[in-house]
Amino acid sequence: MDPLTKPKTQPDEINLELTLRPTTWEEYIGQEKVKTNLRLIIEAAKGRKETCDHILFYGQPGLGKTTLAYLIGKEMGVTVRSTSGPALEKAGDVAALLTNLEPHEILFIDEAHRINKLVEEILYPAMESRKLHLIVGKGPSARTFSLDLPPFTIVAATTKANMLSSPLRSRFGATFHLDYYEPKDIEKILARSARLLGVQVTKEALAKLAAAARFTPRIANRLLKRARDYAQVYQNNKVDEVVAQKTLEMLEIDELGLEHTDRELLLAIIKKFNGGPVGLNALGAALNEEVGTIEDVYEPFLMKLGLLHRSPTGRVATQNAYEHLNVQKKSSLV
Ligand code: ADE
């Protein structure tokens, strides 16, 4: 996978993300509908002096799901404890977290689609009626203990809402889909990030970086960081249009934001499979790339750009893909 498209926050990016993470609604750019709805839910809960409903966010990586969870915490004036689906291995793991929450605190569960069955079964009654049902022992001597939990909120995030079981999904009072950002909003996010990082950047450079950021704030910030490095070494620390262009060229990113792997994927469909339709497994084998990565990382972006189409019989490269890559369609005439 190309480094820029890596869905997760990389270890060396944690500080960057913390520096740039918005901490007020005013600082959080874009996703206006989600923000309006969340502010209402929070206002109402605060007015009633109750905890907030359980909330589920789903959407592509890097669009701000974790940021929103922390913003909710800040607005409610409570601490957010953080965990993830794969970290909760046993029923006891989630039980320990829930019993250690102070009243009204938030438990943020990232990668919620990876919560296992055992943990889900603890979560159902906990979310629904603040009861913890624990089974101690095995076989005929097994006993069930019930424990009352303090009021709390679960905020969960997932890139694959369809992989969450429907009983779990139904226990969230509100579910929000985070969509890709408008390029104009990505520009605003970049301008803010540049200010916070003390990077001098021109309007033209912002537009260029924003256009190549795959509509995703995390990727935009990665690009800005790379441009800052380039400017520091070659150009007096100022990120102008030339620096932005050179940075993108160095990273092999084209004007639409396509990286090497995106182009390889489209070219494989066109050249090896005559434009498609081609099944996901065959495509994965041709590219030596995991099927899940193709489906979750590359395809949504290529579909958003109208370069790829998912048909019932497989993936198809669109006319736009041929034009963008400057390849002729093979004639079907013999
Ligand atoms: N950084 C990441 N996402 C952001 C957003 N939506 N607004 C401002 N800065 C961000």
Can you tell me about this structure?
The strands form four sheets. A five-stranded parallel β-sheet has the order 2-3-6-1-7, with helices on one face. A two-stranded antiparallel sheet has the order 4-5. The mean pLDDT is 93. The chain is an alpha/beta fold and 334 residues long. The protein has helices spanning 14-20, 32-47, 65-76, 91-99, 117-129, 166-169, 183-197, 203-211, 217-234, 241-250, 260-272, 280-287, 291-304, 319-325; strands at 55-59, 80-84, 106-110, 131-136, 143-148, 153-158, 174-178, 200-201, 238-239, 308-311, 314-317. It folds into three domains: 31-178, P-loop containing nucleotide triphosphate hydrolases (Rossmann fold); 183-250, Helicase, Ruva Protein, domain 3, CATH 1.10.8; 260-324, Winged helix-like DNA-binding domain superfamily/Winged helix DNA-binding domain (Arc Repressor Mutant, subunit A), CATH 1.10.10. It contains 14 helices and eleven strands. It binds adenine. Adenine binds next to helix 7.
> Terminal Cα separation, in Å?
39 Å
Bound molecules: adenine
Helix content: 40-55%
Largest sheet: 5 strands, parallel
Based on the model shown, name its key terms.
334 residues; globular; two-stranded antiparallel sheet; binds adenine; 5-stranded parallel β-sheet; alpha/beta; 11 strands; Rossmann fold; Arc Repressor Mutant, subunit A; 3 domains
Topology summary:
Blueprint (H helix, E strand, L loop, with lengths): L13 H7 L11 H16 L7 E5 L5 H12 L3 E5 L6 H9 L6 E5 L6 H13 L1 E6 L6 E6 L4 E6 L7 H4 L4 E5 L4 H15 L2 E2 L1 H9 L5 H18 L3 E2 L1 H10 L9 H13 L7 H8 L3 H14 L3 E4 L2 E4 L1 H7 L9
Parallel strand pairs: 1-6, 1-7, 2-3, 3-6, 8-9
Antiparallel strand pairs: 4-5, 10-11
Helix pairs in contact: 4-5, 7-8, 7-9, 8-10, 9-10
This protein binds adenine (ADE).
